[in-house]
User: What shape does this take?
Amino acid sequence: MKKLDLRLFRMIKNTKGQYIAVLSIIITGIFVFTAVNNSAVNLKDSINDYYDATNFADIFIQGSNMPESLENQLIGSNGIKEAEARLVFDTKFLTGNDDDNVNVRVVSVHQYENKINKLFMKNGKRILTGRDIIVIEKFAEARSIKLGDEIKLRINGREHKFNVSGIATSAEYIYIMENEQSLLPAPEKFGVVYVEESYLQKINGNKGGFNDIVIKLNTPDNTDRTAKYLEDKLDKYSARVIKRADQLSNNVMNQEISGLEMMSQSIPFIFLLFAGVMLSVMLSRIVKKDRISIGVLKAMGFTNDEIVMHYLKYAGSVGLIGGTAGSIIGTALSGMMTNLYLMFFSIPMLVVQVYYRKIIISIILSFVFCVLAGFWGVKDILRINPAEAMKPESPKKGKRIFIEKIKIIWNHVSFSWKLVLRNIFREKKKFVFIGAAVAITCGMMIMTMWMTDIMDLMFNRHYGEFINVQYNISFNEFKSENTMKEFSKLINVKEMEQRVEMPFEIKNGKDSKIVSVIGLNDSTKFYAFRDINNNALELPQDGILLSSNLATELNVDVGDEVILKSLVKDDDHSYVYVKGIVNQALGINGYTNIDFLRGKFLDKGIINGVYINSDDNVTDKLKDIKDITVLSQFDMKDAFSEFTAMTAAAMGTMVIFSGLLGFIITYSMTLMSINERALEFSSLRVMGFTKKEIFNMLIRENMIMSVIGIIFGIPIGLWLVHYMGVSFTTDLYTMKEPVTISGIATSIALTIVFITLAQLMTYAKIHRLDFMQALKNRVS
Amino acid sequence: MSDTVLKVKNLSKNYQMGEVTVKALEDVTFEVEKGEFIVILGPSGSGKSTLLNIVGGMDNPSDGEVYFNNELITKMKDKELTYYRRNKIGFVFQFYNLMATLTARENVELAAELCENAADIDEVMESVGLGDRADHFPSQMSGGEQQRVAIARAVAKNPQILLCDEPTGALDFETGIQILKVLKDVNEKFGNTVMVITHNASIADMADKIIKMRSGKIADIIINENPISPERIEW
Assistant: This one.
């Protein structure tokens, strides 16, 4: 080994604390990047493979009474390659326990194999005859359903028994949610089953009429045009055309992948940025300390390039080791992370790959990044004149800091505090860096706390404050208002309200969106509408209230006029005024007065759902009523509790990452201070300062910067929250909940814990420092 | 001693300190023959270190010329000066300036790795009397031992000139004498030209040539026909 390299190796050994510190930030940055990015790619590739293997539809059509002959009519027109008509409806899964409210979606399939949305068989056979049924895997697992089991469904008001002949997954139900408002999958409460088409038609009473068509296109590029064509062509069947991008399961998957991609492009770079600055500061300090050595090397005949390279090897080794370790750990974790998705997503062809190209790119990027950051730190080598370097460096110009000019304060400051304040002002860059690290740590903590709170807040805000409904009952068809009287007889009702819920296309100029519009009593007790400023909103007699994400998507404001186009009744549309924008955390909806909606689009006195609050077990009491679906808020809360437990682990990891940043930077910068100021501390020791007093001085310096960092960290955290809120707001969620005071307080407390831990670890260094040796040391 | 290895002609160096121009060197001219032991003698501030730095290719003059083996070094570019220092010059500093994280031997090897015709490391270590201390780190050595390592480091490159800036300045009398003896031995054994700058007039007695400096100018150049051995020096 060349002697200069040997010197480098021993330099690393002597500064191992700082070296490991910066290395761990690089490793964290690279492994988060590799793990998250690989997971996103794994997920994307797996889904695409799955979609290709099962010939996943490009367009989904929901309508009513669509004849099977439509299949042939559609094929060949407007880029349509294949079309398959289906029967799809939700019904009750009978468990034998009346308290257990379980629904399934029944989907008709061909006897042998479908052309589109083929089932991926996990167990059993695909061929279906008569009472054979295929159950979707997640539901089967959650309810312990096995091949050969008998299951019972209530179809067309009657109990039907089926034999489980297969367990399968479907590309259409990777993420199984009952509807947009469900928020989370609850596999034991909702599943999907597949029954042979002719048998299902027979028992359901459908004679040749289908309510669902799936379409495969020659090329997905024409999706928009074909979707428009289908909307027009199938208008008479009240068809709702859903593009693959908007299909619920696919939409959730894409949002998850986008979230991962966004995370892989933000958090790692915060770490790398700090590692870069830290490396640059560290090397500039080392170069400053090695000034005489550098002068000697130059005097001996080493070129500038050779000396710069000597120090850059320090940075390069950090990049190389950090990049390699980070990408290896990241790749290993990406496998675990991708497998974790199996808890939520049903992807049988999950591909977990090692992306060697990415590993190499990560290592190269990390290396180049560290070398560049290192060069920024060592560039002063080029300016060192060997002749000048031999002479002792002239002491820094001592100038008074601005507080000194305020005599009334300065005269009351103790000597040790004066030292603290002067040090901070004389080493501005270093302390700004510590402050910035604390600020980012605190900011990231706030974001993490917010994310921990937000799901809880969103759920409770939506289902506790916005909608206060214990039981949401939906009818499969419109019924008379008198149905409510029947319910009143069966249930001891505390509160009950009628509702009409219909799909509409809401248009504002070029912008349009298909959503459910809910017609409610004007004095509804089940909804508490509030605008985005949290002011109470009344349901207007006429006009419509739009959820805030819908208003944003349609680009409308209060007072604008939009077109409401019914998807139930042909060519029925009406112009209505937007009377308010509703702050809504979950889902995307429009709300009108029930009479206003009926007046425009329906007959008087008809409804298709009711809201009920009751102490009775409504699910049980209404079990014999045909063609209704009961959704209980209690079941949703149970599903949510399970989810909360799982997210807690993820958030814990985020807290550790955030804290690690503040911890490492404070620790390494303090360590650097101790090394550089050995002579100063030795003088203080000679004067009679104890080790503890010197340590307290260092603590005070960092404490001031930590307090400033925390103060700046709060707005940074709020900005991050805003950024995350905007990024994650979709049709499904509106993440506009504010950060809570307790969230901020917890973040500050956690930041203080990590900073204090870092401080305590440096005490050992102070204790070990040989002050007398430092005073007499003259070798460079 | 017939070949001229170094020619310094009308060398001047000015520093600007605020509005005042300080003349560190003024019209300095002298020659050095191959294998000579030169002492540049003068009080602090007389310009001797500045002269050494310019001759060693570490600083540029304001005016004048320095020729090394008839090659004009004062017009050399930075890179050429580096190679000049690498291949022709060996420096010994007052405060040794060793690499703290390298052992004595490694410090010497560091220099030897720089040039193609490096001296034999063991021989150099022996000649400075450090054979048994080669594996010690600078912090484990006395000032005199460290200065021996510094001399070995300079000699290991097989330089034509050894430039020594107050090599005994930080040492006690006895150690100082030992160091001067090492320098003289090196001068005689390896045939290097040795140029020592000092404010200690006693050291001049061991030189072949004494250049006395005062206020940036050469006050006198004395050829010492009978240089004494370092052991006989007293101060």
Q: What stands out?
A: Residues 410-466+634-780 of chain A form one domain. Chain A has a mean pLDDT of 86. Chain A touches chain B through 27 residues (CB under 8 Å). The first helix of chain A runs from residue 3 to 14.
